[in-house]
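Onboarding guide, step 5: your first structure request.
Type a short instruction followed by the sequence, for example:

Predict the 3D structure of this protein.
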Amino acid sequence: MSFLDILYLSLRNLREAKLRATLTSMGVIVGVAVIVTMVSFGLGLQRNLLSRFKALDLFNEMRVFGKNVFTLASPNSNSARRGDNPNDRRGPSFRPDKAPTRILDDAAIAEIAKIPGVAYVEPTLMLSAYVRVNGHSQVQFITGASVPNSSSRFTEFAAGKMIGSKDADEAVVTQRFAEEFGFKNPADAVGKTIEFLAAPKEAANARSAEEEPPSFFGLPLGQDAVPEASSSAVVAKTFRVAGVLNSEIKEGAGQGGLRGLLPGADIYVPLPAAHQWSID
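The system replies with structure tokens like these:
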């Protein structure tokens, strides 16, 4: 039997059993479409979840704890730490899984940096100081950041760019910082000078308690307590704004908001400068 005879026989069978051929074709089409849809949905859901975690730097960052004043003062308090009680509605706290046995000094940080697979070590340095820029003075939180930095929070800028080098007197600020200090557009803040203010010691010692504004543990209460008259303030350090981070929250995976384990702040300066500032 030739190929033409086989083709003719097939077409004749299809003409004689149209309903059966139609139902068989529809069953194959629906079955293939359902399989393709389910596989596509599963792969898309997996990719969406992975992209969200990757955008938040949850797969490439980890926090290391060391001995501090609290662990040295209460070495036997591990069993009473928050999170050990499964009925605690507050949930587990952000704490180490084992009791720290070593202080994280410069030598320990250097050893951690030599571990295979570690790109860099970024100590957590959170500072607060009076900041003056664009004629405004406020208390702001400053955090030291490694330069270069592969964190996803330093990838999207509303204006400007990342700090050029670890020794540069540059800073990166957030959009909220630019708005609070009177900049209409983020681009207007790029290139401006940020002044970290410090009160002179002799003036601080001579000031009486009656002359001091109301404060809470040395922090002024309200905007009126911020030193508008900068004649008594000393500029301790200056930085140039290199970029303004884009903190706008958008639709999608990890679009905006806080990312990574680095504490959030409105000003990011090079890590060596923050380390020196903390020592001084």
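Each response can be followed by summary notes, for example: The mean pLDDT is 75.
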